[in-house]
Amino acid sequence: MSTTFEVNGKQVTVDVEPRMTLADCLRHELRLTGTHVGCEHGVCGACTVLVNGEAVRSCLTLAVQAEGSQVTTVEGLSNDADLTPLQKSFRKHHALQCGFCTPGFITTAHALLTEEPDCDADRVREVLSGNICRCTGYIGIVEAVLDARQHYKK
Amino acid sequence: MKLPPFEYACPTSLNEAVALLVSHQGEAKPLAGGQSLMPMMAFRVAQPTLLVDLRKLNDLRGIRIGADGVRLGALVRWRDILDDKRLETAHPLLKAAISHVAHYQIRNRGTVGGSIAHADPAAEMPGICQACDAVISVIGKAGARQIKAKDFFQGALTTALEADEIVTEIHLPAWPATRRYDFQEFARRRGDFAMSGVALYYDLEGGKAANAHIGVIGVGDHARRLSKAEAVVNGNAVNEALAVKAGEAASAEVEPQDDIHASAAYRRSLTGTLVERALLAAMAR
Q1: Which residues make beta-bridge pairs with B196?
Q2: CA nearest A42 in B: which residue?
Q3: What is the pLDDT of residues B172-189, one digit of tens each?
Q4: Does the CB of A66 have a partner CB in chain B at under 8 Å?
C-alpha cells in the first residue's frame, strides 16, 4: 500500500504491507535506524516516536496509519553540529550506558518537556514508567530530564 | 513478533465500516487506537484477515457533556479525557480512573471504545462502565442498539458485541456535584495491569450513604459490581468501622483466580483493602 506522511520535516511516500509497523517502516524503508525495536508489543518504549507532536509507540502503530501525519524520530530531534540541550543533559548525568533505550527516552522526554516544562520529579517518573532501561538505572535519566527543563521554558 | 498478514481498509463512513466487517464474515476487526489489538496480533491471539481502521470516522470523536451526563465518542483517547478540564466536575471518577490507564505513550493512542471492545478483565474503563451504569451504543448490520454495561461485559475478552458491530459511544449518566467517590488500584509498577482495582461512589442522604456503586477490576474474568458490599454501605454513615465491614464483604464477594501475578487469596484480600481505602478517601472528599 502506498502511504504518504512527513518524517522529520520531509514528505515521504512508502509502499508497504499493511502489517508493517511504523517502527519497521522507519528503520527498513527509510533507513532511520535511530528508532529502536525492543519488545515489539508495546511494553519497552524503545520505539517511541512523535506523531503530530505526541509520543507514541511506533511498534503499536501501523505505517499505513501514519498517512498524512507528521512523524518525528530521534534523528529529527538532533542537531547535526552539536548535541541538543536534552542530549547534553543525558551525557552530563550519565543517563545511558549501552544506549539501546536512549532514543525512546529522548523522544518521550522531549514530548513531555515541550508540553510540560514545569513538570516535577514525580511526573517525570510517571511518564518515563513507559520506558524500560536495563543497564543504567533510572536515577540518572530522571535527573537528566529534570535538568533539561530550563531549556524548554519559554 | 512481526504481525501476521492482513488486509487493511480505512472507510470514511460508519455504514462503509460495517459493510466491510460483514464482508469478512467474522474474520474482520475494527481498529481504533490498536494499543491492545496490535499486541494481541503480535502474539497471534488474534489473527483477523481484515483490519477496518476507524480513524477517519470523526463523528466518533469528542466528549459531549450535557444535563444527562457524559457521552464519550468511541474514538476518545485516554489523553483527551485527561486533558478535558470540564470532566473534573462532570465526571471526576472517570478522570481519576483514567490516570491509571497504561503508560504515557499508550494514553496518546488508546481509545475508550477500543478498551471496552477488548474487555481486558484488569482494564479500568470496563470498571468505570460497570460502576457507573454506562450505556454503550453500537452499530452493526442489524442497525444501532444500546447495551447496558452489565449485559455488555460477559467474560475475559468477551462482550455482547456481534462480529459486525462497532462501539460508537459510551454514555455515563449525570454526576451529582455532591457525590462522594474514589478510585483505587494496585499494580507492581505504575501503568501495569491492576492486580485489583476499585471504582466506587455513593450519595449522601441525611448524613447516610445511599445509591452505593462499587465496581471492581482485575478480580474475576470481567469487571463487575459488588452488590453485597454495596448493601453494607447503603443506609449507613460512612466511617472507619463501616469501611472495614464493606471491605470484608467485598473480599467475600469477589471470585478471583490464581495467575502468575498473584494468588486468588491475595487478590481477595487486596480487593477488601482497596474498598476500605476507597471508602475512607471518598468520605474525606
Answers
A1: B186
A2: B39
A3: 999 999 999 999 999 988
A4: no
Pick the CATH number of B7-53 from 3.30.43.10, 2.60.40.1180, 3.20.20.70, 3.40.50.2300: 3.30.43.10
First-to-final CA distance of chain B? 46
Q: Does A1 touch chain B (CB under 8 A)?
A: yes
CA B67: distance to chain centroid? 22
Buried b (16+ CB within 10 A) or exposed e, B111-139: bbbbbbbbbbbbbbbbbbbbbbbbbbbbb
For B95-137, the pLDDT digits (tens) are 999 999 999 999 999 999 999 999 999 999 999 999 999 999 9
- The shortest C-alpha distance from B106 to chain A (Å) reads 6
Q: Is any Cβ of chain B less than 8 angstroms from the Cβ of A3?
A: no
Contact B38 A59 (CB under 8 A): yes
Domain at B180-284: CATH architecture: 2-Layer Sandwich (3.30)
Closest CA to A125 of A139, A114, A115, A111: A139
Q: Do B106 and A48 touch (CB under 8 A)?
A: no
Are B51 and A1 a contacting pair at CB < 8 A?
A: no
Contact criterion met (CB < 8 Å) for B3 and A19:
yes
Quote the ipTM score: 0.96
Chain B nearest-CA distance from A131, in A, is 9
State the nearest Cα–Cα gap between B91 and chain A, in angstroms.
Answer: 23
Options 3.30.559.10, 3.40.50.1970, 3.30.465.10, 1.10.530.10; which CATH number does B58-173 get? 3.30.465.10
* CATH topology for the A85-151 domain: DNA polymerase; domain 1 (1.10.150)
Smallest Cα distance from A112 to chain B, Å: 9
**With contact defined as beta carbons under 8 Å apart, do A96 and A73 qualify?**
no
